[in-house]
# Entry
Amino acid sequence: MYQYKRNVYFCAPLQLYNNAIKMNKNTSIKFVSAAEAVKVIKSGDHVHLSAIGNAPQVLIKAMCDRGRNGELKNVHIHHFHTEGDAPYSAPEFEGVFQHDAFFVGANTRKNVQSGYADYIPVFLGEAARLYREGYLPCNVAMIQVCPPDEHGFVSLGTSVDACLAAMEVADYVIAVVNKNAPRAFGHAMIHMSRINIFVEDDSPLIEKFYEEPSETDLAIGRHCAELIDDGACLQLGIGSLPNATLACLSNHKNLGLHTEMFADGVLNLVEKGVINGANKALDRGKIVSTFLLGTNKVYNFVNNNPQVLMQDVAYTNDPFIIAQQPKMTAINSAIEIDLTGQVCADSIGTKQFSGAGGQIDFIYGASRAKEGKAIIAMPSITKKGVSKIVPTLTPGASVVTTRFHIHWFVTEYGAVNLYGRTMQERAKLITSIAHPSVREDLDRAAFERFGPHYHYIG
# Structure
């Protein structure tokens, strides 16, 4: 496993593009148009994009314009989950752009499932390693930053993830300077001398609005909250379920946050002092994340806020860093689980739906932490009434959390600890918190699998 070094992101300053920038307080940045900036992209190049709501849309559009004009071929596009348009993955750009991302979002899912785009299976914590150790090239890194301060530092804002690693190996770094990008601290802070080309665009960051938690979400949230001890350090995944869990934690004390992402749901607990990081072993008193996915409320919260450290994904998602946080509690969701505890979290059968993300990074890290807890939480059935607990995974489904990694499993019907349990014991426990309408079928499937002795397992 790649061992993160805190100073790895300090590399020699890149040569400045056309000598356009002189580093002193009396001269301003010389900007070029997006169309001019993307001329450095060549056919066959690998391009990394900053992610989530911080994707540099003006550069993406300019790059795609070049593709439509027949100027580019076989350009590989890499990024984490992005919000907003992702036209480079569309069928019209077959042979021009190849989407090879580390995570599949809603904006590229249809094209990935149709074969016009693709996915690189990787733990998010190791995505930066792909660049740093040469498994994946990066010719051009396209990022978005806040305006520079008086010392010449800009911030990667809401998307640090693998951007630092991409910048370290890229031939060119193109930065969109956007006054709406928050000035976040931590590894997000970089000197502008590391950027070759500057483009100005003040488009608002893309916001993500979550649905209000359902009654099922709140029931799951309550069960998760009961497992969270005072003084625990939390990681929560994406969606309404984490918000439901956070809504149930207002009476907790001295919680910390070390996560790959967070959204608006944490703000109320920070304001109340529930999340204060007082018991963290690393980064005490700080909220640590690598990207954000929320509304302007959370973007404004991190702006100029020394309480928040936006860090390299090789740090936030390193299981051996995560394991050093006492009472580390990781809560992640899933698409389906079988009776032995195998968890599918990124595909529906053979159809790629999302990605492994940081699930295993945090499940493994939390399970190795002192008094840590690794939790998989999900509704027992889909909105269409289909059970998410199944005798065997759908053919072709990807196993993200293995039955060797799983500990706690939670649905709206309760919480069970599968760690150290036999296969037959697991089947009993998992069935006990399945939807009542399918428990008899699951019990029958377990009996057929394990034989008549199964009914005598207590």
Summary: The chain has two domains: 17-200, 215-456. The chain has a mean pLDDT of 93. The first helix runs from residue 34 to 37.
